[in-house]
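Saturday, quiet lab. Running sequence design on the structure tokens for the scaffold JK sent over.
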């Protein structure tokens, strides 16, 4: 996984496919606990999400939300999107098509708060 600090308050993470996907989520849980920031997760390379990954994503969302930050998922392919739809997680997470739109979403949300 590569992470990029897009600004002081926004981090972009390029997730890998399994088996590294699970490790990426654990790493993000650790890093966001130490330094909470708005987070964009790019799912472009992810082809499958299992129940363990879903649990980690929910934990990551809760951790980020409790710190007053936002989580946006982008680049989700059709197969993974189907999993989010079937489980109802499409209503819990924020989704965009690409990183640019995710960053814009976070910046507009921040501007509306200020």
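Result came back. Writing it out in full:
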């Amino acid at each position: 996984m590569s992470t990029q600090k897009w600004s002081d308050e926004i981090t972009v993470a390029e997730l890998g496919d399994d088996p590294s996907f699970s490790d990426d989520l654990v790493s993000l849980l650790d890093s966001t606990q130490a330094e909470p920031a708005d987070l964009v997760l790019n799912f472009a390379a992810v082809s499958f999400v299992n129940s363990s990954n879903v649990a980690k994503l929910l934990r990551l969302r809760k951790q980020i939300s409790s710190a007053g930050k936002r989580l946006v998922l982008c680049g989700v392919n059709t197969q993974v999107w189907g999993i989010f739809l079937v489980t109802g997680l499409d209503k819990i997470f924020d989704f965009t098509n690409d990183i640019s739109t995710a960053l814009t979403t976070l910046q507009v949300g921040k501007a509306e708060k200020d």
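Notes for JK: DSSP finds four helices and five strands in the chain. The longest helix spans residues 51-66. Ask whether to fix the surface positions before the next round.
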